[in-house]
Structures are given as structure tokens and as C-alpha cells.
Specification:
Elements: E1 2-4, E2 9-18, E3 21-31, E4 36-40, H1 47-55, E5 62-67, E6 71-74, H2 86-97, H3 101-110, H4 126-139, E7 144-148, H5 156-171, E8 175-180, E9 192-195, H6 196-200
Parallel strand pairs: 1-5, 4-8, 4-9, 6-7, 7-8
Antiparallel strand pairs: 2-3, 2-5
Length: about 200
């Protein structure tokens, strides 16, 4: 069961099944405003599924998730019109989310993408595409950011900028849950660490 409207992110006895595989069960954790969690473990053990459960894109097999009303998920999907310049592609979502032109500019600044505002998304490199996904996340103004492999394709400068942006979100009372198959090279305060392989995965 998934319940919206909480100030915190909280999982209680959470279990996830994909196909015939029980990825994890009896998962319990909580993050309060200003806290971040990092989920680690090799590919295929349930990290992305956990984020999608929290985002409401999958249903839990059992257990309860308490989530804030405002959530943004950043994963490998672009969710931007690749034929449009970045600024125009973001305007579409800004209208839906009730965000302003200043919000668009601030989100691009936070990801170091302002100089690419007039470039069509289809021309972006791997790293630029990842930063564009992050811009979309920042633009939502959501309290909870769910970040799946957020450092993929980023150079050191972009990683440092991302770390500052994530920390600013936490300092402003936001919540972050990030997932990565490697140790994240991003500098931000992490209050909770979960290793999927050691703490969450349960064989059938």
C-alpha cells in the first residue's frame, strides 16, 4: 500500500516482486526533511524497483510506503521532447507543474546547462543528456527527489555541481533517495545507507 501526504519518506515491511523473483522483503527505513539515503548494490537486485515503488510506478507486493505528495523521479528516461531546444522542452513541463521562467533558468543553472538552453535535446552528449534529466527533476520543485544512478556520464565538474545542488535541496528541507551500483562520487550529506545485496535481497 502507498500513502501520500506524509512529511517524511517511510517504508514499513516493504516487499517487491518482479516476475517470479522476490527482490526484497521486510524493508524498513525512514527519511525526514533534510535527510538523504543512498541505496547501493549490483545491477538487478532491486534498487531501481525500490525507487519506482516509491514513485508510484510499481505496486508493492506487501508493506506500506508513506511518501510526500510532491515527488520527482530521475532515471534513464529522458521525458523531454528531443526535437526541441532544452528551454522549450522544459517549458512544457513548467506549465504542467506551475513553474515559472525563473524556475527554468534556476534549474538549468543548478545543472550547468544554461549555455545549452537553445540547443535541441537530440544533439546532447551522454553526460549532457544526464544533466538534462537532472534539470527536469530540479524544475519540479518536488520535496522528494528519487535519483537512479545520478552520476552516470558526468564529468568531475558536473559531479561537483550536482553535489552542491543536492546539498542545497537538503538544506532547504528536501529529501533525497539515490541509488547507485557503485560508490557515488557526489559530496552531499547521507543519513542512511542501504546495501541491497546485504540488507534487502531475499531469495525465493
Amino acid at each position: 500500500m502507498r500513502e501520500e501526504g506524509s512529511e517524511n519518506l517511510r517504508a514499513e515491511a516493504l516487499a517487491c516482486v518482479r516476475g517470479d523473483n522476490l527482490l526484497f522483503r521486510d524493508l524498513n527505513f525512514a527519511l525526514t526533511p533534510g535527510q538523504a539515503g543512498l541505496v547501493t548494490g549490483p545491477n538487478g537486485v532491486g534498487k531501481s524497483s525500490l525507487l519506482r515503488l516509491i514513485a508510484g510506478l510499481l505496486q508493492p507486493f506487501s508493506g506500506t510506503i508513506h511518501v510526500p505528495t510532491s515527488i520527482a523521479l530521475c532515471d534513464d528516461r529522458m521525458a523531454l521532447d528531443e526535437n526541441l531546444p532544452l528551454r522549450d522542452a522544459l517549458r512544457f513541463w513548467a506549465r504542467i507543474d506551475g513553474r515559472t521562467q525563473k524556475d527554468i533558468a534556476d534549474a538549468m543553472d543548478a545543472a550547468g546547462m544554461s549555455h545549452l538552453a537553445e540547443v535541441p535535446v537530440r544533439f546532447f552528449s551522454t553526460g549532457q543528456r544526464q544533466r538534462a534529466r537532472l534539470v527536469r527533476t530540479f524544475l519540479t520543485g518536488s520535496n522528494l527527489w528519487l535519483l537512479d544512478e545520478p552520476a552516470n556520464g558526468l564529468d568531475m565538474t558536473s559531479v561537483e555541481l550536482l553535489g552542491r545542488t543536492l546539498q542545497a535541496h537538503l538544506d532547504g528541507g528536501g529529501i533525497i533517495l539515490a541509488a547507485s551500483h557503485i560508490a557515488l562520487p557526489i559530496a552531499f550529506d547521507v543519513s542512511l545507507k542501504l546495501d541491497v545485496l546485504e540488507e534487502m535481497e531475499t531469495p525465493l
